[in-house]
Amino acid sequence: MPKKTNRKINTKIVNQSLISLSLILAFTGCANQAADNAPENAVDKQVKATQTKSEKANPGDREGHVMTEVVPRDMIPQAPILDSEQALASFKVHPEFELELIADSPLIYDPVVIQYDAAGRIWALEMTTFMPDAQANGEMQHESQIVVLTDTNQDGKMDDRQVIIEKLLLPRALAFVQEGILWADHESLYFTQIADHNGKISAVKTEVVDAEYAKGGNLEHKPNGLLFSLDNWYYNAKSSVKYRPYPLDAKLPEGATEIYRNPFWKFAKAHTEYRGQWGLAQDDYGRHYFNHNSSPILTSSFIPDVANRNPRYKFPKDVLNQNVGTTDVYPIRVTPGLNRGYNRGMYDDEFRLKAHTAACGPLIYRGNQFPGEYYGIGLVSEPAGNLVKATRIEEQNGLLTGENLFDKQEILASTDERFRPVNAYNAPDGTVTLVDFYHGIIQHRTFLTSYLHDQIKMRDLERSKHVGRLYRIKHKSSAIPKVQYLDKLSAIELVPFLAHDNGWHRDTAQHLLVMKQDKSVLPELRKMATSHPNHLAQIKALWTLEGLGVVELNILQTAALNKNAKVQRSVYRLAEQLNTSATLQDWLQQQAENTNAEAAQALSLAIGTHKAWPALTTLINKYGVNHFTFAALAHAEKAYLAAEGKNISTANKEKITLVMNIDPNKKHKKTLSGESLLSFGRGKNLYEGKAACFGCHGANGEGSAIVPPLNNSEWVTKSKDKLAAILLHGLSGPIEVNGQAYNSPMVMPGLAGNNQISDQDLADIATYIRNAWDNQAQAVKADDIKKMRAETKTQTIPYTAETLSAKFK
């Protein structure tokens, strides 16, 4: 454990076994084939020497659960710990870009999350105890910390380290707030008041803000993020919850609940759409970008809080999780260290990972150092492939698509197996800062296969001293802009930075202005919101006004004269916050008559909030009934049809009537009792806890665009034997559920080899999912699982729908 120090780079490194980053790698694998037979070499001998030991030690091994090798051993290089010079030499960077080291151990250890403050200092979360070894011994020790790095001589590299808070448990999220920081550990969200005396930073006191932030659940599937978004709320990945500090005397919006207060502000919590896995980003228009491990960039193409409005209507999964770009990747080394690397389908012809399996830490580039053609590209880390992928994002009529920025080449990749990029950030100097966790193991023991366990032993990947690095990605032929930091500026001096050409400056200026709550800047903000030639400045000014509690109809009306659809979308979303009046309803009608299809989506939401039904009819007759129509009609379908049903087509009326007649509170009669009911309760805890089923299938069992649902699934409710076999050995490849085809690149892992999950646990999970939500089926007993375990003990890889159906009728 690194000792606390405020001195420059002289902190002693303490050797400790390697930590895993299972936050970012859950399930991988495809179809298995026999291992290639390679000549025995030094690596072979090492494996033979450790094999017996590893078979005994591996928590994933059980009788009959043996996995074969695919990558020839003579192709696999060793994986020594590289020093910084060697690490830099291991990279292949696209010719237009270059990579520079800005912080290295002992200045930083095991970083997973960073944030730049207004002074350009880096605040970092060091996660120092995650999976100390393959058995997770010592994982729950309170030994992580929050540190601040400073570039004291302004040469572009950090040279000073201050430990601010220590003895933490697996910290995972960090954000700034008035008078301090918000941060989250393994279970809770905290506020720490911070004192800054001429650059010497100290923690004054820490209080719990939300004890439920990350409570329960598997370590791989917990909330993270705390992204300060355009709408002044903090959002999270792997979560359907958002947060916001308000002035002590402010009225909270409908749906928000106060959960904490201190002398400076009170804190609200509200629900939003569920999104993502590890990492969260936004673009200039407040749209969020997230991922699942096999889906590198997903978005919903709209400012949040739309799909969660109407309990009668479920937005389609492909609207909530729109794929932006492709999944193919191009490592520059063989990649045998995959949890399901025994499957030949994981690799290309050179035994390199061919598709994302650990996508994480998405970023939309919004800086001013890269040439303009690269503005708005997406960057995604792929630690299993030791690379960072770049995606060109295109937009048409408000919908986003993407393609690889470079042809069969990544923006950067490494031959170092321990290079583990996990997050990336827009920096004050217009470049990108990349976080390298730098570790050998990236799989938690819950799903660690015997194959990967042997790979770990083969290359001594547990061996570690605490290491970690931060890199700068910059455009090679472009100058780095001179940086003006914002920490010493007054509120009025911050306003022009809302129009800065670097997204970091715009976001930081908005955040500081909202935190200061200085109303003296209102005239300048109103002017910028209504007349600035830069539409990004207009949008920032409008939302900064909202952050100061000022949303005015006359300002929105003037701003809406800008025909830019992005400005209009923000105007209409803000119009939802106004008090309903006849004047407002008349204006909404005028807008409905003149708006375009992209802006109409947001306009319909404002119309629904203020029940301007004739305006909604105008939009329906122009663009039809769509997802946003149902969001606008939340709880008001009957009232709308009574007022306007005669003015829309029969087909559109029938669509609304169909949704109107859905009872979201309808519950199927449950027949479980006694031990079966107790099993159901235990199964629910496991589903949402250490088994982490909800991480992919969702708390409501509905899955996602790429993950099949459990609710209303014949694979769950019909054959107990099929379900038991899936739980034991997993499932991969295409599958049809309730008439809909799914072909996810992800693999559901089997739990047969996990000695932390008993037969009774699996029976409890099965009983729960067979009777949760709309499902209703017979309970499953531990003896059912035991019987199936014996019958399928020779099954060494996940089933496919075809092989499963052939074996179990």
TrEMBL record:
Source species, domain of life: Bacteria
A Pfam family it matches: DUF7133
Keyword Acetylation: no
PROSITE patterns: CYTC, PROKAR_LIPOPROTEIN
Signal peptide: 1-34
Xref: InterPro entries: 6-blade_b-propeller_TolB-like, ARM-like, ARM-type_fold, Cyt_c-like_dom, Cyt_c-like_dom_sf, DUF7133, Membrane-bound_put_N
Gene3D superfamilies per UniProt: Cytochrome c-like domain, Leucine-rich Repeat Variant, TolB, C-terminal domain
Xref: SUPFAM superfamilies: ARM repeat, Cytochrome c
Alphabetized UniProt keyword annotations: Heme, Iron, Metal-binding, Signal
Residues annotated as domain Cytochrome c: 678-773
Protein name per the record: PVC-type heme-binding CxxCH protein
